[in-house]
Amino acid sequence: MSIRSKKPTELNIIQSLIHEAGNPADLRIMPFGRDLSAYLIYLNSLIPFEKYHDLIDRLPQEWLGRNQPDPPLTHETLQTNLSITEAVEKMLAGHLLMIIPGASRIASLDVQGWLRREPKEPQTERLIRGPREGFVETLEDNIGMIRRWIQDPKLKIIETVLGRRTKTRVVLMYLADIAQPRLVTEVTRRLKAIKIDGILESGYIEQLISDRRASIFPLTQATERSDKAASAILEGRVVILVDKSPSSIIVPTTINEMYQTPEDYYFNFWIGSFLRLIRLLGNNLAVVLPGLYIALAAYHPELLPTQLALSIAGTASRVPLPLIAEVLLLEIMVEVFREAGLRLPGAVGQTLGVVAGIVLGLSAVQAGFISPATLAVVSITAIASFTGPNYSVDIAWRLLKFIMLFAAAVLGLYGIILSGLAILIHAADLNSFGVSYLAPWAPLQWRALKDGPFRMPFWARLYRPETWRPQDTLRSGGTKGEDDD
Amino acid sequence: MNQERTSIGPWLFWSLSTITCFGFGYINANIYNAETMGANGYLAVPLAALCSIPGLIAIYLLMKRFPNHNIIQQSIVILGGFLGRLVSIIYLLFLLVFFIVYSTDVAILIHNYLLESTPFYIICAADLLIAAYLGSRGIETVSRIASFVILPLATVVFLLFILILPEVRVDRLLPIFNFQFNFEGVGGTSILNIFYPMGLWAFITPYCKNIQQKIPRMTMLAFSVLISFFLLDNIGTIGIYGHTYISQLPYPSIETFRTVEISYIFIEQAGLFGVIVLLASTIISSGFSLYAISLGMSQVLGLWDYKRFVWILTPLIFITNIHLAHPGFIKSLSHLFAKHGWMVIWGYPILLSILAFIFKKKGKTTHGS
Question: Which end of chain A is flanked by fewer CB atoms within 10 Å, N or C?
């Protein structure tokens, strides 16, 4: 039966839909039902053709005219009585549209037929111990992952749509009885204030809701780990999930959070604390070491042990470049290799790292371009920079390392002190959703400090960190009521 | 006018008071002590703390009377528009000159100890720029920085003091009970300036009104920590070099740290850590002073806000620094301020407090100006 033989109302609806959708090439119209009197309209790019028969089996039987049991459709996935505009919006979002026979009604069914990725461990947040589960590009899957961690009716899931053209779905997740209501209101307000044509990744939102958009430090925390996001929700923070993005955003955050991993809590507190201290040490080395090396070797050799000072001076005398040029050149080369290694396929990237690190480095030393001491310092810096678990803050520190390097080259040790203080002043000036970026150090919060550079055992951490101002502060223990009984 | 909408908690208040006094008093205090009191010059430290208390009580009483006003706004209310502004300007100019002398002294120290071949103006400019950046960010940032660095700083300083103890010769120190009353009184006033940043608290009283009840306790805590710092410093310096030799050293505290040797660990001299700690605290102290003076200037003149004044004052201070940069001249000026500066720093709040009591002046309870 052709379309032209149908009733004018149904034909008009189909024509209007085609017109409103801009007659896209991937639009498909399929007659279905007992006498092929109904129509399925969908975008083939979002709902592949092979799923068509499967879909029909899941449709409501009154439309199919078959004697089948009720399909497992919920109220949320099936919406009826849509206008043409609403129907097109649904179709563009991957819904299946149905023209119901005998009535000028359009229904939509959220079938989510697009391609999906299996959850895998995020490459930048790998752990020795812990779940191997990371967020994927499908919002529903990501919500489901958090739901599996927190099976609490107080877990709120608020959805909003951002981006005039992309219509990206964004979800807020928090525990209603723990998260500070003012925080939730503020996050909602900032999300609503976003006026943009498209959101292609959660990074867009991260930058648009940041307290200080020009700051080099990330004022929100991004993670692909579902356990990390769930842990943040349990602390009283808000997690933002964005459709088509595997990175969730956690707000608020502090610099203290940037050095923590879920693993710190999976091992006992001795190991957890040790790992954190190593990370902090690695981070400090990655930022300060090249500058300190220049300051001590070029300005204040008297502060070094005599043998070490003589050794550095001896090797440096055979190098034609000044120390700052030598360090700067090597540091830039390391950054180039690192970026190249990221873009190259895995095995080639690893080979490049080995070739660049060992072969080129040794060749440069033998050729007299650089001194062995400089090579050692830059290598330690490069390796130490990988200790940080947060990529955004690691990059920030890598950039700031160059500022400290220049400051040390101009003013020696004093330059390091000045540049370090300038960075610290900037950090002290930052807030993340009303929380001091330097908390729990500034202002000092003793209770929250139990989860600072050292991770105290669970029995010593009865309360949620006061940094996030949770409504319900008690986290573990809480047997007072039982005792009263 | 840019009125900050913030408040500082007890910890921030304590850390700010402690670190700024430490940064301010650390450079010269032991020279003045040893000069005026000789071998038991360390006794000047608790005496100076005692002498500072009336001024602090006056500021506290003024704060209770005028919870929403700082010392400049209080002056205008108590002394009237014209006289209040005039006296405030003189008071602020005094603080400004005091700050210029202090910042030049710090720059000379850096020039002598760390960067002999670097031009003096570059050191001055770098030092002032960071202090101005800090000052321009407001009281919240200044106090957060103080809070962030206070614990590592205190740890390093106490460790260094422990490490210098083996070098101390007890026979160079006069015992506590060998009391020389006349000298002690003079010695106490000679270093009263080390607690001068506590007087700057008068500028931030509106931000402390939520912790009014805790301020006496926090001030006493800051005093006890500072007295311990300066006592150990003085005992170490006099015990190592003797009081007669100290006056020949430009910066005895740093020389004292230089005596600590942890050879062949990583660095030859532990003095490096002492210098880092000292310089970090001096910059925080400078930033706070600059903030307070700029805030006062903007309030007295009713122009712009403290942020702009910080950046207006910075080049002026820089030019003055360069022209004053003669170590002997700065030392004598510094000495002069140390001996007599307390009259203004502590005298002015006491005077205002008495006048407010006599004329029964009181501030409004609502958030003013």
Answer: C
